[in-house]
Structure formats: C-alpha cells, structure tokens
Amino acid sequence: MKKLLMIPAAMLLGTAAAAPKISAQSIIVNPVQPDLAVSVRVDKDPSGNATPTYRTGENIRISTTVNRDAYVYLFNVDANGEVTQILPNRLNGSNFVKANTTAVFPAPGANFTFTVGEDVGLNKVLALASLTELNLDQISSFKTQQDQFATVKAKGQQQLAQALSIVVNPIPQNSWVSDTAFFNVEARTPVQTGSLFVGTNVANATVILNGQRLGSANTTFTNIRPGSYPVRVQAPGFRDYTTTITVRAGATTNLNVEFAQVVTPAPAPVVSNQFTLSIRSSVNGARVFVDGQEVGTIRNGGLTVEVDRGATEVVLIAPGYQTFVGRYNVTRDAQITITPTR
C-alpha cells in the first residue's frame, strides 16, 4: 500500500500458536485443501473474524502463522487498489517462517512503525504461504537500491490474484495456501479547537493564557483546545487584569478589558510646625526673649524670629521702660507690635 509509511529496521519473529484457517473470501484460493495452513491477522482483530477500523496515520501490526515450515508472502491491497508487498522486504532479509510460529510486522521492539495511509475504505491483507520459495520477479521489483519494499505491478485484487495464480501454477497445488484479513481505514477526525479574542482600551497590552504568552491584545488567537484557562492581561502603567475564560470548540470567546489608570496618590501636604513672627517696636536696642530664650534686639524698628506652633511668650526689656510680657497663640506667620511703657 503506497500510502503506508515505513522506517526501515530488522523484522523479528515471535512465537504464538494460532489455528490455521482457509478463507473463502481470499482473493486467491487454492482449488484443493492442502495440509499446509496459513493465517494472517491485524492487531485490532486477533480472531481474524472481524473487520476492524483504523484511522489514517494510525500504527498497524500484521501477523502471520503457518503450521509447517514455509515461505510467507504478504501483500496489502488498499481502497484504491494499490498493492504493497509487505513481505519479503529488505528490512529482515528473509520471509521464511518456522512451523507453528508467528511472524509479526513490525516485530515487537522494532525501531520503525507501519502506518495506515490516507486512502479511506476497505483494505485487504493477503498472506500466501508456499513450501517452496517463489519467484515474484514477474509481479514485483525493487525500483532502486534504496527501496526497502518492492513495487507491485498489479493494481487491484483481481490483477493481483491473476498474477499470483501464474506464479503458483507451476508448483503442486498441495504446496501452497492463502488467507486474507480485512480492515477499514477512516479519515482521522481533526482536533476541534476554539478561538479567543482579547480587546483592550490601551495599546501595548500583552495576553498570557495559562502561563503562556500569546501575544499582543486586540488580536484573535486561534487553535486553542477547548477548556477553562486563567488569563492575565498586562499593560505598562496599569494594574494587571486577571480572570478565567472558557474556550469552546468551533467558537470564539470574547474578552474585553477596560484598564483603569493607576493613580499615584499625591503626597500629603507637609504641615509646618514653625512660623515667622515679626516683632515691631519703636524702642531700638530693646532685648527680645521668646519662650525664655534671648533671640535678639530691636533694630530699625523690628526683629523677625522663627517660633513653634502654639503658645508663645514674648518678653521685651529696654532701659527706662517697663518690662513687656506678652503671650500669643501662633498658628501661622504673624506680626505683633509692642509699645512698652515708661
């Protein structure tokens, strides 16, 4: 089957007993029933009685069992009639299977896979067992030295059956037998995804979904698997916006973020605890005391001092004048005039 994908390596043989079977549905049927028996199976149907379904791109294993030492030839006919020669190939070097053993392709532990292609519909796997080695040069060949699998010239089950009949015609009828397994190929169902649109009222906002940065806001993000996710939207100069959204398959989830400007509170006004007190007096040279401390003398009709908020005592002493004592409640810059008496 041309669309099957293969990565070369060696094919191994396992041991497992299986009851021989001759299928009347085989595309090539021996007119006699020899004592040689072969059975072919796909891994989803070990019984060989069903038609299991594989999806395109899915791995498949094919096994065959014989009751006598025989050469086994495996072919796959896909839904479009293209034929792939599975065995023999250049991966394992031999298609000889011992009696009552099972050859599996790919073998357990092989470092390659055999993958169903994209041609949907019914597939048939034909196993032809022969006591003598057959010459298949008339129906298949390796096109290049790099080919791991031979190209089959026949197309469709009818041409393949005719070609194989010519190959087995020269040998005794009791020395070969065939069996066929069937499986369906279905198209792989694409993973349904949803979309997320994040709109904002500012520029340079960034969207983070489930811890992963998606990109800039005011954008529709696609191919998101359905589910609930935490969302964080960030913008310079603004507080982060966080929420949880739900993405649904085949739909777009809308998230609109209105950022509020981060307001830096104005510093509290500084309340001064000192004020300017201007003391006016006509007695030049008078000594001035404020709250018991001498702060200076009257010059040019006045003196300006700094005083603390609250109750303040001002004393003015000058020769020939009575001592002046005044008390004031200072709450702002102020001016007082002192006229001492003689």
Automatic annotation (TrEMBL):
Signal peptide stretch: 1-18
Record domain DUF4384: where: 53-132
Signal keyword on record: yes
Residue span(s) of domain PEGA: 194-261, 276-339
One GO molecular-function entry: carbohydrate binding
Source species of the chain: Deinococcus aerius
Keyword vocabulary terms for this entry: Signal
Pfam families, alphabetized: DUF4384, PEGA
Protein name: PEGA domain-containing protein
Transit peptide listed as a keyword: no
